[in-house]
Amino acid sequence: MYPRRKLLLAMLAFWSGVVIWLQPTPQINATLIFIAGITMLYLLIREPVLGLCFTLICAPFKPLEQELYRYPIDSGQALLILTLLSYGLRDMVMRPLHNRTGQHKLRANAWVLGAIGLFGFVAITSFFQARDGVAWLRECLKWVEIIIIYLIVANESRTKRLWVMIAILGCGVFQGGLGLLQFTRNSVAPGHFAILGGQYFRAFGTLQQPNPFGALMGLIWPFAIGVAVWALSQVRLTLTDLRLCLQTITQHPEKGKALRQVVSILNNKTKPARPQLALAGFAFLVAILSLAGLIASWSRGAWLAAGVAFVAMLIVAFRRPGRTLVIIAVFAAMIYLFNGVNYLPASLRDRLTGFTSQYSSLDIDVRYVGLNPTNFATIERLAHWQAAQEMIQRYTWFGVGFGNYEAAYDEVRTMYWRNALGHAHNYYLNIFAETGVVGFSAYLVMWLCLIIYTALAKRRNLLAIGIIGAWGHITAHNFVDNVYVANLFLLMGAYLGFLEPIPDDTQIQSPNGILPT
Questions:
Q1: Do residues 471 and 223 lie in contact, with contact meaning Cβ atoms separated by under 8 Å?
Q2: Residue 382's pLDDT band (boundaries 50, 70, 90)?
Q3: What is the dihedral of CA 157, 161, 162, 163, to 10 degrees?
Q4: Whole-model pTM?
Q5: What secondary structure letter does DSSP report for 117?
Q6: What is the C-alpha to C-alpha distance for residues 110 and 107, in angstroms, rounded to an integer?
Q7: 115 near 450, Cβ under 8 Å?
Q8: What gap in Å lies between CA 195 and CA 182, rounded to an integer?
Q9: Of 54, 247, 435, 450, which is the most buried if we count CB atoms within 10 A?
Q10: CA dist., res. 230 & res. 517, Å (int)
Q11: Three-class SS string for 447-471?
């Protein structure tokens, strides 16, 4: 009954939040806020990791909350703070003041911490050339939160990691479903998101823009594939079992009885692993839903990044580049054939070939280009790329300060593009402009270390197949946008934590001293 009671309380808190979001009467709002708050505090005190689960679910709501309420802090960040307080309280309860040394050492990988620490050190020291200290601090805190979430997940038990995993998949279900609803319903999408002749609309979820929504879906679908592969690997179904099933079907004179025997064999073999099979099936559904949401975002950057993620997953899964190249060649040939016989819709062909026109315009000076509805998005992006290049030329070695692209934009902007839009729409140019050669080099070293570490982790953890896909998506999408926005970076910390070996459950105790199962 105890797990059911916690599940009931969690569902009560979630649906209370849904009702509040729908904005009923003030009296109902106050009552439900009180109930949800008490329930949330109870759950966080009992199991601090639930706070991290709620954080990852609520994190993508940041843009919507800023648009509706304009609070100084969003629910994802507030829940993360409460989660840290809950872990602190648990630590005080479990370890008295007189006995807090030499116990419960944090498990972490030195290469991961060292790589992020190298980039973090350069980012922190860029404060001396920063124009806006608040923007610098906000950007630095992102990487601090990544490390914090990494340490939390890395030091949790198998069961609690599974809770975090399901929370991420649940986020994918909600956001992907909402995106598909927006894709087909003109009543919930702005008019300028209309595509395909106005019959459909670009999906944006709760992120209020299609590009970051495509990035979120691009981070979740590879992870869901990794979860499914990892869960299926727990099913102890050997080649001998499959050979026995095949022989039963081919050699038995009565096919009906043969099929019943095969079902009985498979049932006996897979009975201990039915939870893993259920998790694998759920993860596959999340992957399909997230991929559909990514396509519905109509984001070319997300599409390109999804292709890179797919290739990265194949390379790590097969560990044989030859097989990967054959599969890629087959897919490329199919797309080329469909395009040649006009099976691809004209709007989709135009969207895909838009990459060529955009990158062929890199040498254009946007100050001398006439604007029209067709080229506006491309020229706007090029204008911000040129502004970043101008910052790089002026502040080559140390940049303008971490997170200070917007603060320095007025110094280098072109005449007709006054709004900085927060970033350069190319993270590599953005980080180069903000931290110079030193910071850009540190970022590349950090990112290369994380990719290599994830690829090597596949030998002991099949989740790495999905996580390397997420890294591939970030790598490619950052060429045309900035993925570290709208709390999406929190997923990065959780993914890094999943790569660590699971701690010995005998060293992890819940607040009431009961060992987790």
A1: no
A2: confident
A3: 110
A4: 0.82
A5: H
A6: 10
A7: yes
A8: 12
A9: 435
A10: 19
A11: HHHHHHHHHHHCCCCCHHHHHHHHH
